[in-house]
């Protein structure tokens, strides 16, 4: 259950996908965003207008006195922030899955992590639900970060650097790589003049199944059956699609190997 009574004042550093989605969720939870700090003035001004707050393009002009500062930047920009920003004794958290907890220690000893485990795009509505993985460099700050996190997410879990990095890797496989496969399938459908939308029910069904069963138990297709005749016909069709042909061979071999000897 999302907490509704814990209110904080917030400064958001960044104006991209994570900053936008997190900021909207923070406003919806009843917190007050004091300021947006971003390199691009147009983006900062747009978000400030939506949230009714101030903005700046200069890190030296970041508002003092906020309860929490949320750094929603790229991994590299987050790692470089310690060279240009100092917020002593302020609670500062970054939103990156693969960046260490200690990355902002030079910015503030009261620093930590507020990582949304979700694929976020600022233009997509409605905004999705997302788990928040949290951590802190000082044990005393963990309850504060957790209380804040629980106002904007129904699923909050403490996670150290190792756990977050492992989940980040798993998310690349489960989300980024699968979306690339969707992209290849859509390109194939377009070039072969067939309707990609006909695949949407099977995509939804697979996603729904793994919410109820372990993924290994719901694998289907010619590779898991060892149906080499069908796989060969597929490969003939993919003769002019080098990327798809390469991936088809690789995935088919790995699936067949994984399920060899498995009773299904």
From TrEMBL:
Matches recorded under SUPFAM superfamilies: 6-phosphogluconate dehydrogenase C-terminal domain-like (SSF48179), NAD(P)-binding Rossmann-fold domains (SSF51735)
Gene3D superfamilies xref list: NAD(P)-binding Rossmann-like Domain, ProC-like, C-terminal domain
Protein name as annotated: DUF2520 domain-containing protein
Domain DUF2520: 131-254
Domain Pyrroline-5-carboxylate reductase catalytic N-terminal: 10-94
Cross-referenced Pfam families: DUF2520 (PF10728), F420_oxidored (PF03807)
């Amino acid at each position: 259950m999302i907490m509704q009574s814990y209110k904080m004042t917030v400064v958001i550093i960044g104006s991209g996908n994570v900053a936008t989605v997190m900021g909207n969720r923070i406003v919806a939870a009843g917190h007050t965003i004091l300021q947006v700090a971003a390199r691009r003035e147009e983006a900062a001004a747009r978000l400030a207008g939506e949230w009714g707050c101030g903005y700046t393009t200069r890190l030296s002009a970041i508002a003092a006195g906020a309860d929490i500062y949320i750094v929603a930047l790229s991994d590299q920009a987050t790692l470089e922030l310690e060279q240009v920003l100092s917020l002593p004794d302020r609670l500062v958290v970054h939103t990156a899955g693969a960046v260490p907890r200690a990355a902002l220690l030079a910015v503030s000893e009261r620093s930590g992590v507020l990582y949304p485990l979700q694929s976020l795009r600022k233009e997509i509505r409605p905004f999705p639900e997302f788990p928040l993985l949290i951590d802190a460099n000082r044990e005393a700050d963990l309850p504060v970060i957790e209380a804040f996190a629980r106002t904007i997410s129904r699923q909050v879990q403490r996670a150290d650097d190792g756990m977050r990095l492992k989940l980040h890797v798993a998310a690349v496989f489960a989300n980024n790589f699968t979306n690339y496969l969707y992209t290849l399938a859509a390109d194939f459908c377009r070039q072969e003049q067939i309707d990609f939308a006909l695949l949407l029910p099977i995509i939804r069904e697979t996603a729904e199944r793994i919410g109820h069963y372990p993924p290994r138990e719901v694998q289907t297709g010619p590779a898991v059956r060892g149906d080499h005749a069908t796989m060969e016909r597929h490969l003939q069709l993919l003769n002019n699609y080098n990327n798809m042909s390469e991936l088809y061979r690789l995935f088919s071999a790995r699936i067949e190997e994984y399920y060899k000897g498995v009773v299904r």
